[in-house]
Amino acid sequence: xxxxxxxxxxxxxxxxxxxxWSAWTDPDxxxxxxxxxxxxxxxxxxxxxxxxxxxTRMSEDGVAFVPHVDAIFLxxxxxxxxxxxxxxxxxxxxxxxxxxxxxxxxxxxDHPEGTDYRVVVRHGDPSARERHEKLGFFDGWNMVTxxxxxxxx
Length: 153
Fold this sequence. Notes:
Elements: E1 6-13, H1 17-25, H2 27-31, E2 40-46, E3 53-59, E4 66-77, E5 81-85, E6 103-111, E7 114-122, H3 126-134, H4 137-152
Antiparallel strand pairs: 1-7, 2-3, 3-4, 4-5, 5-6, 6-7
Domain Activator of Hsp90 ATPase homologue 1/2-like C-terminal: 14-152
Protein name: Activator of HSP90 ATPase
Pfam families: AHSA1
């Protein structure tokens, strides 16, 4: 963790780790929480394995969808850790995604009340980290983490 480059959040989710893992790796469950409501998410590809694609679209009205995430998974350690980046797209080509390129690491651990859920979002330089924070990293990622918790608790 580098505070000049990274943004983090942590939460206890009151559900077993396997259930939280399933919400991250099952496309139907993932689509229900990954975008702040009332926006709607469609998962085009969720291949939870190293090198697998993560491609989603989003919609404000549930009719017209626009691209949202085109990324690949770098690390998928069953029930423990998921790392993905949007700096490489699902065709394994270097990308310059808007609003910021990032690598996100999700770490799950057992907690007496359920699952210790930790996120580290890494950026390539301080300006990208600052841009992501100003665009609402904490509001957005906290909102979808709350939605994740609500979907599994």
